[in-house]
Amino acid sequence: MNITCQKLNEQDLDRLTALIRVYENVFEMHNFSMPHTDHLQTLLTNGKIIFYTALLNNVVVGGLTAHILSSTYYPSSEVYIYDLAVRTEYQRKGIGKQLIASLKEYCTGLGIKEIFVQADVVDQHALDFYKATGGVAENVIHFSYSLPKI
């Protein structure tokens, strides 16, 4: 299987849409509505968001979304992997590892200090995957604040 990982650029609206459809499928996002193309185009031009896709025969079968976060404590930035998914039928074939490796290589070139990601404690598959790709687990608790709609 010949998988290529590609960082998306401003011209890759179709591939971003396909990546979001992969997320919708893998994350079982019921009743999901695709954002307007103007919003997606804004994401593609945002220099602080990184999108990678995994392509098989020019078809998106996986990918990741990461955010570059400026640090208060040192001049280098950090990168947060927000989403990473591979279509179910292509999982456990090394595609996720290729995506992580591509992101690491890109971030190294930018002088990024660290990449981090969150995984649910109950998601053993994700925990095993991130450990297998060199991630080091930390004991932290994630808090969320839901805000009222204005």
Would you kindly provide a written description of the structure presented here, covering whatever features stand out?
The protein has 150 residues and is of the alpha+beta class. It has a single domain, classed as 3-Layer(aba) Sandwich (Aminopeptidase), CATH 3.40.630. Helices cover 32% and strands 25% of the residues. The protein has helices at 13-26, 37-45, 95-110, 124-132; strands at 3-7, 49-56, 59-69, 78-86, 114-117. The longest helix is centred in the last third of the chain and has 16 residues, at 95-110. It is globular and about 40 Å long.
Structural class: alpha+beta
Beta-strand portion reads: 15-25%
From the 3D structure, determine the CATH topology: Aminopeptidase
CATH architecture: 3-Layer(aba) Sandwich
User: Secondary-structure element sequence?
Assistant: EHHEEEHEH
Strand order of the largest sheet: 1-2-3-4-5
Taking the alpha carbons of the first and last residues, their distance comes to: 48 Å
* Backbone CA Rg: 16 Å
Reported for the largest beta sheet, the result is:
5 strands, mixed
Report the CATH superfamily: Gcn5-related N-acetyltransferase (GNAT)
Number of strands: 5
In the predicted model, the low-confidence regions spanning at least 5 consecutive residues are none
Classified by CATH, the class is Alpha Beta
